[in-house]
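Incident review: delayed structure delivery

Summary: a single-chain prediction request sat in the queue longer than the usual turnaround. Root cause was a stuck worker, restarted by the on-call engineer. No data loss occurred. The affected request and its eventual output are reproduced below so the record is complete for anyone auditing the incident later.

Affected input:
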Amino acid sequence: MSSKTPTPHPDAAPSGSAPPQPVAEAADGSPNPGARPGLFRDASLSAVLAGFVAVVVSYSGPLVIVLAAASAGHLNTAQTSSWVWAISIGSGLTCIGLSLRTKMPVITAWSTPGAALLVTSLGAYSYAEAIGAFIVTGLVITLVGLTGVFGWLMRQVPTAVVSAMLAGILFSFGTGVFTSLKTAPLIAGSVLVAYLLAKRWLPRYAVLVALAAGVAASAVSSRLDIHLDRIELAKPVLTTPEFSLASLIGIAVPMILATLASQNAPGMAVLTASGYEPKDRLLIGSTGLVSTALAPFGSHAINLAAITAAICTGPESHRDPRRRYVAGVSCGAFYLLIGAFGSTLVVLFAGLPKELVAAVAGVALLGALAGGLTGAVKEEKDREAALITFLATASGVTLFGIGSAFWGLLFGVLAHFILTRRRRTTTEPAK
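Output delivered after worker restart:
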């Protein structure tokens, strides 16, 4: 394994420097390093839109798994609404707080593999026992983050392997633009054509134009299915935890492993591959603390996001990486807005055609996917390990409840070690 410093994004700050800081623009639109940075001054429509698209992807996809887990665990409406409130508020607070603190687009979300685990296991325990397991999960992740162990392990991973993992994660979203053409050619085709035309003439608003075109095409083809009977504020439900050895083994242990390996590791990799220098102790420790605090209200785990993070860390968010942190603040604000209403507003996103969400997410991630592929093949000596990482990650294989991103990372590091060790041995001069 290598401890080499990650190769920064072409637009990022030089290697070894502090994390990118926002630079305000002068009256003519050019960067003005002497101006005092500020959120409103750094704000841009493209960054705000990137945060919105990230939230749309989260609520139209991963949240469905949470609702399925709630149903499998026989939770009532109040408990389910509280769960949605807790993970939304937790994601929103960490997005805003960490993005403002680090001046990086830090995107957080709830643990998708953790929710998938609960679909099959939540029904075997009482809800109070599950809450106890959630608290232990948050505490352990906090400890792992604050001690720096997790960050140290991530820093040993070669840059090419990190980039290849990112490309593998995003690969299915890139192809999703074209697979959607089969079932909804008008919607997916409108998104793709609108994106390309806007990319040529209005590059900063390409994703916005693509989203507008997709919504219009969905309306024309009668694919918008939005029914909102009422809007009401969520009412958090506090549940007294119960701790049992069975729930700790059956829920907490696999939840910890899945969240760290399948969510936080790729989340750190996305930031690194985009040229940022994430502070692992701050990011992992903070998300763990927030998870612990909100666990009694139903939050199973808050962690760094990967896929939605790539939407906000790439060039589509803003051409200047020092101003992309606004996308993280925007994402957090939308999380808080929607979370305040519990599961009521979720129907708005559930009514969007899946092809529209897939196509918009796909075009929004093209820049990040291109960056990942470029970083993966940049160094010839690392290409084989990077290729193995990419293929394993893109395969979508899940082993022992842990997703393909972790296995791609593991196989890539193993391949890098074997190949570089072999080359050093064969090139040693004879004694």
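Verification: The chain has 19 helices and two strands.
Action items: add queue-age alerting; document worker restart procedure.
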